[in-house]
Amino acid sequence: MRAHFISLLLVSTFVCYSCSERYNHGGKQPLVEVDGNFLYQEDLQSVLPVPISVDDSVLFAEHYIRGWIENVLLNQKAENNIPNNKEIEQLVANYRSSLITHAYQQELINQKLSKNIPENELMAFYENNKELFKLENPLIKGLFIKVPLTAPRLNDLRKWYKSESEDAIDNLEKYRIQNAVKYEYFYDRWIPISEMLDLIPLQVDSVEAYIDQKRQIELKDTDFYYFLNVSDFRRKGEEQPYEFARNDVSDMLVNIKQVDFIKQVKDDLYRQAIKKNKIKYNY
User: Fold this and answer.
1) Positions of E strands within 157-271
2) CB neighbours (10 Å) of residue 56?
3) pTM more than 0.85
4) Nearest alpha carbon to residue 160 among 229, 233, 232
């Protein structure tokens, strides 16, 4: 019977039952009452996973309702047995005050501050704070192509992949359509070296030293040739290139502006309070 009731509820054919008129439920439909505490139909439906079958929804609802009842009973037991309720009430008040203040600060920031910082300001911040942007992993720019051992014109390919000329790139673009198993052009962006190591069968003691020294790498296994041309390289611990660090630069500068803005708001409020004689020192 209980499962049937919950099933009807979850498919919205539930028939409302009456509750005591001494409670104002604000238009919500009560499901369960424990000593004046109510769990509402709307609360249950808001946490119900979607999509979910009727059988699973019944099981979920039963567990959720049982958990809600147990939490209410445990909370009541705790309130009756914790001796220093005033301390807890003060903690709750402090937490509420912090939440309200934080919400107001965020609203002010959203209204008054833009997250769109001019590019020249981002670059200036980066140039003046490069020590904050160090690489945790090496980066490379370059080109990679993987072809079967039976691919045609391998000698031409060996010349093309080593060159960044327009003609070489054009030839590679045409060649890869018919022959490449994998092709990555990244002369125009930095990628972590780890991404490339997932694509090539490179077995060396020091990957950084090997790639930094070789730059143009040809490898093969039983099925494929792997060609990698590294046009630029940054070691771990070196400064992040601006284009790679840009998002972090933006986030950091936005955060600094927000902190400065809130500090200014507090200073303004303090000066206004002083001017209006709102602050009384009793010492």
Assistant:
1) 182-192, 216-220, 224-234
2) 13
3) no
4) 229
Other CB atoms within 10 A of residue 193 CB:
20
Tokens 């060609």, residue?
227
Per the CB < 8 A criterion, the answer to whether 143 and 186 are in contact is yes
Q: Residue 274, Cβ neighbours under 10 Å: how many?
A: 10
Segment 215-221 long-range contacts (CB within 8 Å, at least 24 positions apart): 216/161, 216/162, 218/158, 220/149
Question: What is the model's pLDDT at position 9?
Answer: 55
Task: Say if 186 falls within a structural domain.
Answer: yes
End-to-end CA separation in angstroms for the chain: 69
When divided into structural domains, the chain yields a total of: 3
Full DSSP string of 99-116:
HHHHHHHHHHHHHH--S-
| DSSP code, position 144 | E
Residues 251 and 185 in one domain: no
Bridge partner list, 36: none
User: Above 60 in pLDDT, residue 17?
Assistant: no
Spatial CB neighbours of 279, under 8 Å, sequence gap ≥ 6: 273
Mean pLDDT of all residues in the chain? 88
- What does residue 187 show for φ and ψ, rounded to 5 degrees? -65, -25
What is the phi/psi pair of residue 259, to 5°? -60, -45
Residues 6+ apart with CB under 8 A from 199: 144, 146, 182, 184, 226
Both 262 and 175 in one domain: the answer is no
Check residue 280 and give left, alpha or beta (phi > 0: left; psi -120 to 50: alpha).
beta
d(CA 191, CA 138): 9
Query: 238 with 139: CB under 8 angstroms?
Result: no
The answer as to whether 106 is a domain residue is no
